[in-house]
Amino acid sequence: MKKDVIYIWAGIIFLVMSSCSTKTSVDENSDTDLIEITKDQFQSEKMLFGKPEQYLFEEKVHFTGKIVPKTNGMAKISVPVGGIVKNINIQPGELVKKGEKIMAIGGSAIIDLQQQFASSAAKIKHLKADYDRAQILYNDNIKTESEFLIIESNYKAELGIYSALKLKLQSMGINLEEIQKGLYQNSYWVTAPIKGQVVNFDFSLGQFVSSDQYAAEIVNNHEIQLQIAVFEKDLQQMGIGQKVVFSLLGDSIEYQGQINFMNHIIDADTKSSSCYAEIYDKGKSFAINQMVNGNVIVEADSIIAVPNQAVVSAGDLNFVLVKEDENENTFHLHKVEIRTGRANQEYVELLGFSENTEILISGGYNLLSF
């Protein structure tokens, strides 16, 4: 009898547990792709609905580079004739205008050139008169050809000397008419060929400067460009006209430009090529040789995309939660497998997905159970 009672209670317990187990499986629902959340949960988890949107996807190539002067934004100054520094009119780092006096160069070589020019100028007048007269006589068959050629040769030889001296003195800014009057200058001024800032100036009064030395360097900080170091693997993607976005090292402010020169020669040591870009932000005062980081936009395309947090991955599969319907207290969502395309740090492309579909774009990761 006691055993019968035990069996009866065991049977009752089994039926109760079986009933509870059956109830649990029904609550979890046979369709695991359907998810129900309360509106209180939606708000507390800071969830957000949205729709796929048109997004400008940019394919980028990262680069490092620096600010450099354009070819017309930098000038290295040399003296046409060597001599002694007689006067200095500027300080290193000073801003100068085009044509402004930098320093005066003097010495015996400058005086000798003026004397040679004055002598050649006087001689050329005499030889020119002889040449004109000989040409008339030769045309009238009074002088022989050989006589005329000797006179012509002497005239043209001296004319070459005169022209060379004239050009050299003009490069020094010396007044030629004053020389022919016997008024010589004991020095001449070296002037700035461009406006800008004087750099690399290291001369003092009394120091000798030869014509094969650079006397100073001037850089115009407003005539600048961006020099970009591009690795060999990225070079084929790049081309003239592509947009450039960059920022100075340690600075978050972005500036823009456009590639205007491509160098297709790879440096054997760095395995990179130097390309150049025009800088749009003319109002910004950049410093020469400032280092930068940036990206070249090699391709831009409008795509259908959603924020990265809207997509949840499981292995090779990707899913989003589509809003099916709602009532007063709950939202009903449907887990949908999707195909993705291009992606960056913010957005991911959806392939073959409707723009009008409302999905959970934020806060849905913990709702998905794989």
From TrEMBL:
This is Efflux RND transporter periplasmic adaptor subunit. It comes from Plebeiibacterium sediminum. The keyword Transport applies. Keywords: Transport. InterPro entries: BSH_CzcB-like, MFP_Cation_Efflux, RND_pump_MFP. Residues 74-218 form the CzcB-like barrel-sandwich hybrid domain. GO terms for cellular component: cell envelope; membrane. The keyword Transport applies. Belongs to the membrane fusion protein (MFP) (TC 8.A.1) family.
